[in-house]
Amino acid sequence: MTVPNKRNLTLKDVALKLGTSTATISNAFNRPDQLSAKKRKFILEACEELGFSGPNKAAQILRKGKSNIIALVLADSIDYMVTDPVANSFIEGVSKVLKEEGKHLLLYSGDSSTLTDVEDFVDGFICYGAPRNNELLANIQAQRKPVVTVDFNLVNRPSVNIDNETSAYEVASLAVKPTDTVAIIGLRLIEANTTCRIYDSPLLDLEKCITRRRLNGFTKAIEETGNSVQNDMIWHIPENNHKYAKQAALEVLSAHPRPNVVLCMSDLVAIEVLYCATAANIKVPEELRITGFDGINEALRVSPSISTVCQASVQKGVSAATMLLSGVKESVVLPCEIKTGETAAIDD
Amino acid sequence: MTVPNKRNLTLKDVALKLGTSTATISNAFNRPDQLSAKKRKFILEACEELGFSGPNKAAQILRKGKSNIIALVLADSIDYMVTDPVANSFIEGVSKVLKEEGKHLLLYSGDSSTLTDVEDFVDGFICYGAPRNNELLANIQAQRKPVVTVDFNLVNRPSVNIDNETSAYEVASLAVKPTDTVAIIGLRLIEANTTCRIYDSPLLDLEKCITRRRLNGFTKAIEETGNSVQNDMIWHIPENNHKYAKQAALEVLSAHPRPNVVLCMSDLVAIEVLYCATAANIKVPEELRITGFDGINEALRVSPSISTVCQASVQKGVSAATMLLSGVKESVVLPCEIKTGETAAIDD
DNA sequence: CTGTTAGCGCTTTCAG
DNA sequence: CTGAAAGCGCTAACAG
Q: How far is A104 from B231, CA to CA, in rounded Å?
């Protein structure tokens, strides 16, 4: 009823009331140098008084072709991504930069089939991981607004990456000895929506798939010891969550012969393996060594702590956002840090 | 150079090329009933051909006063909120609903001092927790677009809440006995940006502060046993993160007499207390009982598992988004489930 | 079912 | 510094 509603004034209304031109009001808000400080102060105060909070943003977006909104295109649906601690750290980094620059963050699902819903009004795109939907990927490539990709590449677009193969190699080298029985729990290695061993299923495209690179790194480390790993000791899980991780962990721990080293492609998986091993009274690291990937907080906190690759996820977000806003054209590869935790101590 | 750029056509251009009117093109996209299916198909196919992906969204937003963008106003900065597992579950719920309804999600910081940046073009607001910045709160209250609040109330606006006091009472009752020495680790109870005991500092406003309600519930449970808790056994931490939680946990565990029950206002805190206790060789629950709040996954996973209040965070998000989109005016209080974990078994 | 047109609210150029 | 006016791209009312 008597809710104190802000009046719905337009810039034109205000100009009329103040007996000045619309251009001057507009300039007062957007181009301080176009009028005297005194007049500007007068106008701004009058607007405050009247309850006019500034030019309508929708109209500004149309007119200026600029919205101050940045779309963060996730690899998958928002509801899935937001449960992923690595993605959250990335978003944290992005949002810090955007806040500083007065930009706003729109989350966009990577399973959308089109970009048209937002393409016309956002100022640019940060793509975190190759979007699950290929049509979307094509749309992003085709449109002309600024794009920065993360963890994958698009022709002629700047990207932020880490060296997955080297990092995987290094962390695996921490754990693997010549006589070990080694298992690998991989993420999205093949086209399957269940937990399973990869056997001879065709692996996904190396170009779009960072986990393929991690697999290469693991394999290299294993083979360098003179050891090897068979396809039936490599598991695939379709998503990085605890449900699938647990299924894989239980399969691994009940395999014959039972592996005494498990190389995991994420910390979330490694933690689940650790819990399953503990529950089954398998001693870590004495009877089972485990390595992870990512460097999420929980991995550093659990006991024994996970040996893992700390990728600077927050920094990734900061870099991507900074690059987008500054218009940089060069791609970067961010360094990782290998963390020797307690789950992979090799001293018998 | 020869990048296949989508041509920048307007609806008018297309109308011209197809020898039809702009209204018809517009209708083909927006009001199928206004033209024959055949003509519509022809137009849509021609547009596809021409690379016209539909009416410009920025212009549509201005003209229709509708953007399909929903702003999620967080209690705090985005970068802080995104590290909070409870907030992430909430976002998960919200985004599921928005996806289904074809809406887009804009994350908005609760520490912004104004709403003007987005107010003009978003279709509505979901406020998750009272925003840290009071000016922002006033702005939200003053504007006329739909709002749903979560974990707090705004006059004449629908809200989603849980019964914090009763839940806190119930989980505390699980753990507290008459002769216990009880400590409480609270969240944002007083105006202090450090970890500290509350002593006689004035508590924050009961209306805006769910943790005050939890405190009431805890106190009630304690007093019902004939026991009591002093102000010097109640800690405040300014933010729900591991750093502050650890500081508080260490203070609690080194207090004299050492508490044998710690009631925590979040699972994150409870988990930290558990880790600190384990590290100090204090047996849980034999020498120390712990309760949490929230029901985050990690709390159910750790060993011993945390006794806690499972609030349906995802459902909260679903409810809030559904209410906003459906225009419901009634507030709801969602049920919680008490989970009797291993950290609060009272059988000696 | 189709075509014409006013106008959503603003910015910016241009002439004064 | 001010005022007039074009037009960003579209939608919807209205007349046919």
A: 42
